[in-house]
Write a structure and sequence with these properties.
By secondary structure, this protein is an alpha+beta fold. The protein is built from 8 helices and 12 strands. Among the domains are: 168 residues, Gcn5-related N-acetyltransferase (GNAT) (Aminopeptidase, 3-Layer(aba) Sandwich); 30 residues, no CATH class. The N terminus is likely disordered.
């Protein structure tokens, strides 16, 4: 991967990896081939993101009011982003980090401190497309363990759980997986996919020993640049807003992401909502924007 440089437009970007943007139907078919559950209802495709809670497989797809309804009787809850004509039906928002002016994004438009960080990151790390899945099969679990011991934001998977997750990640659609090396050592990776012109960062990890080398910065910039040079991609999404983690918020904003609240229709049973409000208010915020 070439280091970031001043570019006038997407066609001026140096050659490098690209991300294939699938249609919603192509994404759904790949999920089915990978053995994952999807539900087709009123022309849209949904998946359970938690047991019994459904979201469209393309989270930022704008649904009409008649489409944004319970996709299956088995769903205890659901949420979907609404199109502008249905915004009056919204009872919540999806708070996400986005770059929605991808053609106007440029490393040179970042603040002075962040530009310097990006340049240091590219001197210290080499970012390339995943050359062989065995690399992550053999060394990726150690990276995930290292990161989760540091962040503690979710349970550490066993080696078998990690390999099963990796197999699904690589089997669904046409993901782009970038890996970072510090010398000859695997230092981190990032993975993402795209649907109807919207790219989503889907997974990734940076080993604790490589955080100080700004490997995470190198990976995220490389992913944004890959999206920028990819035909048809106009938006990059980097996860839901974690308001309880200001350091992560600052990192994403420094790369040019901004937090937007997209109007949604969300259904969560009152007892679940009360429990989340009492015990997991930040989870409730990410589900409802409130």
């Amino acid at each position: 991967m070439l280091p970031p440089s001043r570019v006038a437009d997407a066609t001026a970007l140096p050659p490098g990896p690209q991300l294939v943007s699938l249609s919603e139907e192509e994404r759904a078919a790949s999920l089915v081939r990978a053995g994952l559950t999807v539900v087709r209802h009123r022309g849209r495709t949904w998946q359970p993101t938690r047991p019994g809670f459904f979201e469209p497989i393309h989270l930022l797809a704008r649904l009409r009011a008649d489409e944004a309804v319970r996709p299956t009787p088995l769903a205890w809850g659901f949420r979907a982003v609404l199109d502008s004509a249905a915004s009056d039906a919204a009872n919540g928002t999806v708070p996400v980090h986005v770059i929605d002016d991808l053609r106007g994004w440029d490393v040179e438009n970042l603040d002075l401190k962040r530009r310097a960080t990006v340049r240091r990151a590219y001197r210290r790390a080499t970012v390339v497309p995943l050359p062989d899945r065995r690399l992550l099969e053999e060394r990726g679990h150690a990276l995930c363990v290292s990161q989760l011991e540091r962040t503690r934001h979710k349970r550490i998977p066993s080696a078998a759980e990690y390999r099963a997750h990796l197999a699904r990640l690589l089997a669904v659609g046409s993901p782009l997986v970038l890996v970072a090396f510090a010398g000859d050592r695997l230092a981190g990776f990032i993975a993402g996919y795209a649907v109807d012109g919207v790219a989503y960062t889907d997974d990734g990890a940076v080993g604790t020993d490589y955080v100080r080398l700004q490997v995470g910065t190198a990976l995220h910039v490389a992913f944004i640049l890959a999206c920028r040079r990819s035909p048809g991609i106009h938006t990059v999404v980097n996860g839901l807003h974690a308001r309880e983690n200001p350091g992560l918020d600052e990192f994403k904003e420094g790369l040019g992401y901004r937090v937007v609240h997209l109007p949604t229709r969300v259904t969560i049973p009152a007892p679940v909502r009360w429990l989340l409000r009492a015990r997991r208010p930040h989870v409730l915020y990410r589900l409802t924007g409130r």
